[in-house]
Design a protein that fits this description.
Distance between the termini: 62 Å
Radius of gyration: 21 Å
CATH class of the largest domain: Alpha Beta
CATH topology of the largest domain: Aspartate Aminotransferase, domain 2
Number of strands: 12
Largest sheet: 7 strands, mixed
Strand order of the largest sheet: 2-8-7-6-5-3-4
Bound molecules: pyridoxal-5'-phosphate
């Protein structure tokens, strides 16, 4: 007789649903469901990828020295305070494994990124969800849920899937008020899209209870390579490094991310194009009568009359070969999350939504 059982909490995990990438009956779909950069990665990153082919028989660096050095040089932060992971997903998971366990609590916000809850449950900890106000993080609601068991507090700033954000002053104020055993994790997956925002680098330099996490999957256009990183006090990083697998990042992943971060001109170009088209999209969706918050990211979140209308619009877009993201799993059933594509694609999306709404009348 076998009696194999997973650890408590594991079977409560809902399987993560990624953005769809295929549609039956369509050979050329337009995928706007995973917040990918429509312009792809920097050509210099692609060149590094091709070059790395000659080293595939070698194990990768365990210390990620060159990549950490590159991040440190470009963003002016100490390399010994950086940890790299298989996407920021892995950093989130390492954080939960390292700092939380049974009987302890991991806080995230109402419409927060799905991996916070998944990783907390996988670590045996209790996920605690905090209400947002108008789809925006509310720091007093977070403080109200803090107690002696709170170990981690995740805030995506800007947030996914809402696209909204709070100021660094608000984050700092929160960090100074949370319980002393808690670590505040500021997830900057979309930080590069925000003007005059460092994702929390200066804050981490000042406060030892804050960690910033970042990714190469969004503006760097490298979702397929799976590279993310985090920056925090030495004490936090040294604990995480003990749990991280020694060869977590492959030879190509390390080479590509290093080349990508050095190409900041490319990042700036992508940001300018994205932000222009994103603001145009928001204005156009509002002109169609849809409510839509300002977004600080590479996606927008129009809200429909109700869940049914959002579902029907999603189906209509699919029938035309466009895949966007339903966000009912994020407690936003009346909304659709649409990644900002290039200008032509975005114009097409707006005309299709207009056609759909006209057809509804
Ligand atoms: C807020 C946020 N954090 C983290 C991630 C994870 O990114 P990755 O694991 O690709 O670095 C995402 C991806 O969508 C995200 O939206």
């Amino acid at each position: 007789m076998v009696n194999i059982k997973p650890q408590p909490g594991i079977m409560q995990i809902d399987l993560y649903k990624g953005g769809a990438s295929e549609l039956e009956g369509h050979d050329n779909v337009v995928k706007l469901s995973s917040n990918e950069n429509p312009f792809g990665p920097s050509p210099k990153a692609v060149e590094a990828y091709l070059k790395s082919g000659k080293d595939l028989h070698r194990y990768p660096s365990t210390s990620h020295e060159h990549l950490r050095q590159a991040i440190s040089r470009v963003l002016d932060l100490p390399e010994e305070n950086i940890i790299c992971g298989v996407g920021s997903d892995e950093i989130i998971s390492l954080l939960c494994q390292t700092f939380s366990g049974q009987g302890e609590e991991v806080i995230y916000t109402e419409h927060g990124f799905a991996m916070y809850k998944i990783s907390a449950l996988a670590a045996g900890a209790n996920p605690v969800v905090v209400k947002e106000e108008n789809r925006t993080t509310d720091t007093s609601n977070i403080l109200n849920k803090c107690n002696q068991n709170t170990k981690l507090i995740f805030i995506a700033n800007p947030n996914n899937p809402t696209g909204t954000m709070i100021t660094l002053d608000q984050v700092q104020d929160l960090a100074t008020k949370i319980p002393k055993q808690a670590l505040l994790v500021l997830d900057g997956a979309y930080a590069e899209y925000v003007d005059n925002y460092d994702g929390g680098i200066q804050l981490v330099k000042k406060l030892r209870n804050v960690m910033m996490i970042r990714t190469f999957s969004k503006i760097y256009g490298l979702g397929g390579m799976r590279v993310g990183w985090g920056f925090s006090s030495k004490q936090v990083i040294e604990a995480l490094q003990r749990v991280r697998g020694p060869f977590n990042l492959s030879v190509p992943a390390l080479a590509v991310a290093e080349a990508a971060i050095y190409d900041q001109d490319y990042v700036i170009k992508c940001k300018e194009k994205n932000n222009f088209t994103r603001d145009w999209l928001i204005k156009s969706l509002r002109e169609l009568g849809l409510a839509c918050d300002n977004s600080f990211t590479n996606f927008v979140l129009p809200r429909f009359k109700d869940q049914l209308q959002a579902e029907l619009c999603d189906k209509y877009l699919q029938s035309r070969g466009f895949i966007v993201r339903r966000v009912d799993g994020y407690n936003l059933p009346e909304a659709l999350r649409i990644t900002v594509g290039d200008q032509t694609t975005s114009e097409r999306v707006v005309s299709l939504i207009e056609e759909f709404l006209v057809g509804q009348k």
